[in-house]
C-alpha cells in the first residue's frame, strides 16, 4: 500500500493514534528525529515546523513503537492499520535506534 502525502492521510494517521489511546501534539522542540514519544503519558510530540510529508513520515516511523491493540480500533481502521504495518520495513532496517537508558 503506497502512502500518499495528503492532508486526509495525516488525519487518518492522527485518528489511528487517537483510537490507540495516544495524543498527537505539534509543538516546538529540538527533536533530532522530528518527534518525541512519551510512552508513559501516551503522547506523541511532533515538531510543528515539519511540513505535511515530514509529519506523515514521523507518525509512520513512530507507529511500530506504539502498543496498538487491534481490538480497540474500528473495523475500517483495523484494515488500514494491518495494511500499513505490512508495508513498513523491519525494525532492524529502521533509521531510529533504541539506546538503553542507564
Description:
This protein is of the alpha+beta class and 102 residues long. It has one domain. Helices cover 36% and strands 14% of the residues. It contains 3 helices and 3 strands, in the order H-E-E-E-H-H. The longest helix is centred in the first third of the chain and has 13 residues. The protein is globular, with a radius of gyration of 13 Å.
Tell me the number of structural domains. Answer: 1
Mean pLDDT across every amino acid position: 84
- What best-fitting shape do the alpha-carbon axes yield? globular
Beta strand count: 3
Unreliable spans are 91-97
Helicity range of the residues? 25-40%
> How far is the first residue's CA from the last residue's CA?
39 Å
Q: Tell me the number of helical segments per DSSP (H or I, 4 or more residues long).
A: 3
SSE pattern: HEEEHH
SS strand fraction: 5-15%
Instruction: Determine Rg (CA atoms, Å).
Output: 13 Å
Biggest beta sheet summary: 3 strands, mixed
Q: Strands of the biggest beta sheet: in what spatial order?
A: 1-3-2
Structural class: alpha+beta
Write the layout of secondary structure elements.
Blueprint: H1 7-19, E1 23-27, E2 35-38, E3 43-47, H2 52-62, H3 75-87
Parallel strand pairs: 1-3
Antiparallel strand pairs: 2-3
Helix pairs in contact: 1-2
Which descriptors apply to this entry?
single chain, 102 residues, alpha+beta, 3-stranded mixed sheet, 14% strand
Q: What is the structure about, briefly put?
A:
The chain has helices spanning 7-19, 52-62, 75-87, and strands at residues 23-27, 35-38, 43-47. By secondary structure, it is an alpha+beta fold.
Amino acid at each position: 500500500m503506497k502512502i500518499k502525502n495528503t492532508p486526509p492521510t495525516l488525519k487518518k494517521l492522527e485518528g489511528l493514534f487517537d483510537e490507540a489511546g495516544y495524543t498527537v501534539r505539534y509543538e516546538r522542540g529540538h527533536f533530532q528525529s522530528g518527534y518525541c514519544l512519551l510512552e508513559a503519558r501516551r503522547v506523541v510530540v511532533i515538531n510543528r515546523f515539519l511540513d505535511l510529508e515530514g509529519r506523515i513520515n514521523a507518525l509512520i516511523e513512530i507507529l511500530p513503537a506504539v502498543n496498538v491493540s487491534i481490538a480497540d480500533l474500528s473495523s475500517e481502521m483495523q484494515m488500514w492499520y494491518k495494511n500499513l504495518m505490512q508495508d513498513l520495513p523491519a525494525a532492524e532496517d529502521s533509521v531510529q535506534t533504541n539506546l538503553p537508558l542507564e
